[in-house]
Amino acid sequence: MEHDAQDARFAAEFHADVTVEKIAEVYAEAFVGAAEQGGSLDEAVSEYESFVEILHSQPTFDAILASAMISAEEKRFLLDKTVGQKASPLFRSFLDVLARRNRLDLLRPIYAECQVALDRRHGRIPVTVTTAVPIAPEILDQLSGKLREALGGEPVIQSTVDPETIGGIVVRVGDTIYDASILTQLKNVRQQMIDRSAHEIQCRRDSFRNPEGN
Q1: How far apart are CA 130 and CA 48, in angstroms?
Q2: 173 near 151, Cβ under 8 Å?
C-alpha cells in the first residue's frame, strides 16, 4: 500500500515510445510538487543537486545505479546503505521509486528538469548570452535589466565567448535566439502582445453586452 502511494505521488505509467525528456519532466514535476506540498522546495532541489554532485565524484557508484545488469533490489539496498538516514524522507522515497521502476539512469535528466521547474516557479528565465569578446560586468548588468523588462521575469544569464559570433552578441532564451538588433525590439513586442490581448478581451466583452451587433 505504501509503495502504491509513493508511485502515485511521483510518477504515472509510461508508454514505450515516450521520450526520455518527457519521462524526466513528469518525474521532476512530481518531485517538485511533493516538495512544494511539504514547504521545502528549495531545500529538496538543493539536496538533489548534492546527490548529483556525488554521482559526478563517484563514477563507479553512478555506473552501478545506471546499470541494467543490476537488479532494482540490489540498487535499493545500495542506496539504503549509502544514503540511509542522511537523506530526507522525501528524497529517500523518491530514490526508492526510481529504483523500483528502473529509472535511476535518469537521475541527471530529472534533476535538469527539476531546475527548470524551480526556475519557472520563481519567475527565473535561463538566458545564454554569447559574445565575440568577454562582456564587461556593467554591460551585462544593463543587458540583464533590458531582458528583465522585456521578458517579464528574472533572467539567469550564462555568459559564453565565441569569436565568430555575428554582430558581436547573440542571446538565447529557451528555443528562441535574438541578435543585437532584435534585442532592442523585445520590450515593444511584448507590450504589443499585451495590448492586443487586452483589446481582444474588451471586444469580446462588448459583443456580449451588445448581442444585436453580432
Answers
A1: 29
A2: yes
Distances, alpha carbon 182 to alpha carbons 77, 178, 188, in Å: 54, 6, 11
Per-residue cell: 85: 538516514
In this predicted structure, what is the pLDDT of residue 77?
92
**∠ Cα 33 127 24 (to 5°):** 35
Among the listed residues 170, 169, 172, 168, the one whose alpha carbon sits nearest the alpha carbon of residue 155: 172
The angle, 0 to 180 degrees and rounded to 10, between the axes of the packed helices 41-57 and 107-121 is 150
Q: Whole-angstrom Cα distance, residue 31 to residue 11?
A: 9
The count of other CB atoms within 10 Å of the CB of residue 147 is 23
Query: What pLDDT digit, counting tens, does each position of 94-151 carry?
Result: 999 999 999 999 999 999 999 989 988 888 988 898 888 888 888 888 888 888 888 8
From residue 94, alpha-carbon distances to 27, 34, 111, 157, 185 in Å are 9, 10, 12, 30, 44
What pLDDT score does 149 carry? 84
Residue 213, CB-side half-sphere exposure with 13 Å CA sphere: 8
